[in-house]
């Protein structure tokens, strides 16, 4: 039996740097696994997920959301497409997950994080309470890893504005570092830099070779969904 196609579904961006960074992750997943990996997007870029699903037809496939929380795109866009295709399954999004925390910590250490400095998790806004719960869980896990309180702030039209959070946590003589909880460069990452923080870390993907921990995470989500489908079929 051939392995299901891995449909790598990301948000989409108008940023050339962001698009290139996500493409590099998709290519790295393909190279590491030997699977057939097909990229798709829920917004901005094409081909859109419904087109890719229709093109694959009845071939078994697993949609892996290259998204960091389970919001509208996961529960509506992706779930809706998969529900109409019995041979297709949906994996969990990439976050929350320990691998995401690992990369966030690495990005903070890239910026020389000191023990007494203040860290805020900066994320794109969402009106979906399930996405907000995921973001709060990530902030909590990062707090535990760093052994300090990590507040959560948002850029966008929902949630507590990141600029307000940065102002509220500032202490004399201490840098405020925003840990970018964004997959790749683009509009929202640029917005993090306008919130008054002393430092904004690089997103999880940038011009560097994709972190192996993220590559393994994508494949872990694929394997989990595939195992769940096999168990259901028994």
UniProtKB/TrEMBL annotation:
A GO molecular-function annotation: lyase activity
Keyword vocabulary terms for this entry: Lyase, Metal-binding
Pfam families reported for this sequence: CbiX (PF01903)
Keyword Transit peptide set for record: no
Presence of the UniProt keyword Lyase in the record: yes
InterPro entries: CbiX-like, Sirohydro_Cobaltochel/CbiX
Protein name in the entry: Sirohydrochlorin ferrochelatase
């Amino acid at each position: 039996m051939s392995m299901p196609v891995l449909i790598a579904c990301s948000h989409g961006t108008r940023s050339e740097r962001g698009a290139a960074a996500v493409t590099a992750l998709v290519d790295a997943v393909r190279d590491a696994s030997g699977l057939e990996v097909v990229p798709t997007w829920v917004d901005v870029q094409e081909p859109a997920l419904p087109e890719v699903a229709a093109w694959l037809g009845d071939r078994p496939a697993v949609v892996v959301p290259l998204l960091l929380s389970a919001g509208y795109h996961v529960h509506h866009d992706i779930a809706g497409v998969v529900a109409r295709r019995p041979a297709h399954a949906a994996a969990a999004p990439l976050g929350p997950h320990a691998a995401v925390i690992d990369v966030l910590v690495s990005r903070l250490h890239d910026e020389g994080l000191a023990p007494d400095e203040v860290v805020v998790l900066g994320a794109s806004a969402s009106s979906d309470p399930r996405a907000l719960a995921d973001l709060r869980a990530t902030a909590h896990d990062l707090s535990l890893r760093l052994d300090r309180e990590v507040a959560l702030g948002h850029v966008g039209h929902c949630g507590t504005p990141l600029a307000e959070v940065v102002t509220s946590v500032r202490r004399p003589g201490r840098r405020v570092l925003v840990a970018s909880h964004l997959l790749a460069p683009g509009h929202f990452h640029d917005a993090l830099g306008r919130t008054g923080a002393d430092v904004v870390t690089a997103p999880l993907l940038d011009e560097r070779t994709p972190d192996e921990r993220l590559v393994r995470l994508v494949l872990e989500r694929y394997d989990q969904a595939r195992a769940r489908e096999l168990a259901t079929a028994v």
